Amino acid sequence: MSTFAEPAATPAALLLLGRGRDLASERGVECPGDLPAPSDPGLVERARAAKAALGDQVFVLGHHYQRDEVIEFADVTGDSFKLAQQAAARPDSPYIVFCGVHFMAESADVLTAEHQQVVLPDLAAGCSMADMAAISQVEDAWDDLVDAGVADDVVPVSYMNSTAAIKAFTGRHGGTICTSSNARTALDWAFAQRPAGRGKVLFLPDQHLGRNTAVLELGLSLGDCVLFDPHKPMGGLTREQLQNARMILWRGHCSVHGRFSLDSVNDVRERVPGVQVLVHPECRHEVVSAADHVGSTEKIIQTLAAAPAGSSWAIGTELNLVRRLARENPQLDVTFLDRTVCFCSTMNRIDLPHLVWSLESLAAGRVVNRIVVDPDVAHWARVALDQMLALPGITAKD
Ligand code: 13P
Ligand code: SF4
Same topology for domains 42-126+348-367 and 130-253+380-389, yes or no? Predict the structure, then answer.
């Protein structure tokens, strides 16, 4: 009974290939009738053959935002935290092929053993959010905190969606990594590292996850949060603002989740009577505040699995996952929160041709696109990751 429909064409929408056209622009190409498979069907056979030839030598991880054609070959699917754990739990596989983005492959390299090699099928699969916090900018920001006389009170908490260099910075300064599912626990831990009322958190790089967790889960006020803009001297803040803040939020965001707006929520409530709005905490504060539920990728999947048949859901997260959820839950009415398309363009860089190329290369004894984190960076990143794994109640299913 699923009534999932592709987002409608709007003037601002990126039209899906073959699903309508916009004569006034270059967007979209109309192809009446059934489109053939997006990739050469022969590639499916080649992927199967290469994987079979590699056997236990290879373990393929697939993030929930990956294309269906890639997910089909994943040995395990998950969010970034679960996949990092899974990589660490496979010491017998010499090759880990990571179908996700660069920061995830880096975390896998940090958490796997020396003899294991991590491969990212397309090196262009980066993450715009992770790129919003360059290590030189973060080091400069720390100097600003020292100059403002607050650095001793600050504990860094960095989202998993950050480069290995940022994770290492976090480890060096006594902080922790967090994911969207354990951000509250991580913030509680960080504030407890300093005398009551004195602690501050520098939250990197996603301002929205930091703000949503601090305000909606810890009960801090919006006024307790300041936004540190790395492009401005002293983050665009005064010494007094830094001294009074409890949460220093880095000015970074996810370009995918940042597209959902309060209008998207109001609009879907009008369109779909009784709809429950479920969004990822990377969405803006006003969107998360207006939603009925908020949760990490894994929680979104679990919530729909437990939802009563016939209920209606509008999901605010990446489109590959929402389409899959709609297909896998035909007893529910699953719709995309926004009318415009919202794929993660870098996640989508990993396609079947790149996966086949990396698997066939491995089968031929050639390691392509290996991700290697510098040993010193890896050491300190591991310190911060281990701190996260030691937080109370952290499991892969959180
Ligand atoms: P999770 O995988 O932790 O849910 O994060 C969402 C995301 O944006 C991944 O890039
Ligand atoms: Fe980065 Fe957002 Fe894409 Fe995740 S969905 S990889 S945070 S840009």
Answer: yes
* CB of 179 shorter than 6 A to ligand 1: yes
296: which 2 tokens?
């990490």
Q: What are phi and psi of 95, to 5 degrees?
A: -120, 130
Q: Is 296 labelled a binding residue?
A: no
pLDDT higher than 60, residue 12: no
* Residue whose CA lies nearest to ligand 2 atom number 2: 254
Ligand 2: atom nearest CA of 127 is 1
Tens digit of pLDDT for each residue in 305-331?
999 999 999 999 999 999 999 999 999
d(CA 348, CA 41): 18
Give the CA count within 13 Å in the CB-facing half-sphere of 336. Answer: 24
Quote the CATH superfamily of domain 42-126+348-367. Answer: NadA-like (3.40.50.10800)
Rounded distance from Cα 298 to ligand 1 centre (Å): 9
H/E stretch holding 282: none
Q: Measured between alpha carbons, how far is 196 from 317 in angstroms, rounded to an integer?
A: 36
Contacts of 197 (CB under 8 A, 6+ apart): none
Ligand with minimal distance to 130 CA: 2
At residue 2, the pLDDT reads 47
> Ligand 2: which residue has its CA nearest to atom 6?
127
